[in-house]
């Protein structure tokens, strides 16, 4: 069973999401929270696999709550899906840097919410290639200057660097396989090794790392 906690300041939203998810045979809603403080406290007690976290909440907003839950000091680190009413929201990009597994629009179709929970439960990021490309565009606009190249890049092989560059360009595994003339399984293996070496959770963090490490520079083909 996939254990889910829902954090949203609107009771009707919490109830609606809970009813939808609880109707699935592989999903259990273990609790909810009306603000970020409650979310942090209840995650520690209930230990859900996934937290659906609204961005804007009283007491402690979703961004601050996600940062606390995903920090290295956190005793228990669930996967976090940020919920937002806006297609492009500055908070989302910050949440991805903290380690959130992606974002979902609150008015998305019900099947998208169910699929999102399952995708993240399998260890994937909730970022389709098209969404990743928008993340890249936003990140590039906010980071016009070329950063100093990180020494951590030396942990990767040349082929792993090639794969990371293409991931950071928003390419899917299939597209990367075609570009490098290898199988999709080989691409998955390289990506898993990259994540393990760099301590990354998913593609979202990989995009952020590629820019912040200097592997990719905005406006250049690299």
TrEMBL record:
Top-level taxon of the source organism: Bacteria
Biological process per Gene Ontology, one example term: phosphorelay signal transduction system
Keyword Transcription regulation part of the UniProt annotation: yes
Keyword annotations: DNA-binding, Phosphoprotein, Transcription, Transcription regulation
HTH luxR-type domain location: 149-214
GO MF entries: DNA binding
Pfam family, one: Response_reg
Residues that bear 4-aspartylphosphate: 54
Protein's recorded name: Two component transcriptional regulator, LuxR family
Species per Swiss-Prot/TrEMBL record: Stackebrandtia albiflava
């Amino acid at each position: 069973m996939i254990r889910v906690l829902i954090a949203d300041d609107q009771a009707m939203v919490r109830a609606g999401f809970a009813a939808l998810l609880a109707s699935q045979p592989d999903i259990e809603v273990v609790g909810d929270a009306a603000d970020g403080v409650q979310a942090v406290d209840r995650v520690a007690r209930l230990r859900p696999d996934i937290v659906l976290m609204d961005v804007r909440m009283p007491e402690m907003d979703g961004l601050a709550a996600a940062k606390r839950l995903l920090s290295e000091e956190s005793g228990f680190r669930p996967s976090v899906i940020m919920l937002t009413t806006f297609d492009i929201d500055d908070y989302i990009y910050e949440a991805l840097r903290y380690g959130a597994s992606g974002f979902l629009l609150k008015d998305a179709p019900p099947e998208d919410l169910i699929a999102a929970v399952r995708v993240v439960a399998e260890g994937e990021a909730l970022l389709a290639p098209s969404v990743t490309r928008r993340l890249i565009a936003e990140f590039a606009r906010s980071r016009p200057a070329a950063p100093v190249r990180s020494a951590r890049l030396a942990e990767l092989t040349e082929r792993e660097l090639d794969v990371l560059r293409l991931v950071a360009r928003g390419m899917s595994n299939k597209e990367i396989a075609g570009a490098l003339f290898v199988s999709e399984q080989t691409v998955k293996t390289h990506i898993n090794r990259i994540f393990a070496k760099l301590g990354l959770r998913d593609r979202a963090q990989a995009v952020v790392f590629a820019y912040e490490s200097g592997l990719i520079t905005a406006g250049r083909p690299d």
